[in-house]
Structures are given as C-alpha cells and as structure tokens.
Amino acid sequence: MADIRPTVFCDGVIEAQVAHGVARISLAVTGSDGKALPCATLCVPVTQLPGLVNGMGNLLRQIEERVRAQVAQQQAQLQAQQGAAQPAEQPAADGSQPTGAFRFDS
Predict the structure, then answer these.
(1) Domains of the chain, residue spans
(2) For the structural domain made of 12-82, what CATH number should be given?
(3) pTM
(4) Segment 31-89, tens digit of pLDDT
(5) N or C terminus: fewer CB in 10 A for the chain?
(6) What are residue 81's phi and psi, to 5 degrees?
(7) Alpha-carbon distances of 31 from 6, 8, 11, 67, rounded to whole Å
(8) Can you spell out the DSSP letters for 21-89?
(9) By C-alpha distance, which of 32, 26, 33 is closest to 12?
(10) CA distance 77 to 50
C-alpha cells in the first residue's frame, strides 16, 4: 500500500493553546494581502512537545551549519577566481546567496 501523508506548507503560527494535555498550534500562510491565513492545526501531546521542539531546534542548527559551509565554499571559489583576498564576513561580490535542498536525519 502506498504511503499517503498530507503535506502542509506554513510560514507562520497564528496561535497556540493547550487543552486536555494537547497543544493545538494554528499554522498560517501569508496571503497576497500580507495577512496570516489559517492553513492547518498541528496537535501535539504536551508530553511530546519538548522532543518536537528540540528536534526542530536541531534541524535549524544543521541548516545554519550547512549554509555557513556553502557560503564559505562560495567565498573561497570567488577568491580563487579573483585572485584577491576577501573578508569572510562579507557577502560574495556578485550578491549570490546559497541555494539548494538537503535532507537531514534525526
């Protein structure tokens, strides 16, 4: 049997509340007028919430590390192309930003 799971995109949280041991987090998408529109509700048992939050925090740290590594690699390539040193804190001269997709395992 095929694994069918709904995919929900959100770019914000409207509100969160706890009732009967369950955290209910109203997720939002930004509409064309710039206002938050509800798109789904994430329900998590309060006992599982710390693990979920820690997992998200770990994911964010991994993403930050990956982006820093990509920026450093792009800067090194740019320096090699230009033949001149460029401070590590400055963005690439061409204004490019790291892009791409990657997968992280918990």
Answers:
(1) 12-82
(2) 2.30.31
(3) 0.65
(4) 999 999 999 999 999 999 999 999 999 999 999 999 999 999 988 888 888 875 445 55
(5) N
(6) -70, -40
(7) 21, 15, 10, 28
(8) TEEEEEEEEE-TTS-EEEEEEEEEEGGGHHHHHHHHHHHHHHHHHHHHHHHHHHHHHHHHHHTS---TT
(9) 26
(10) 41
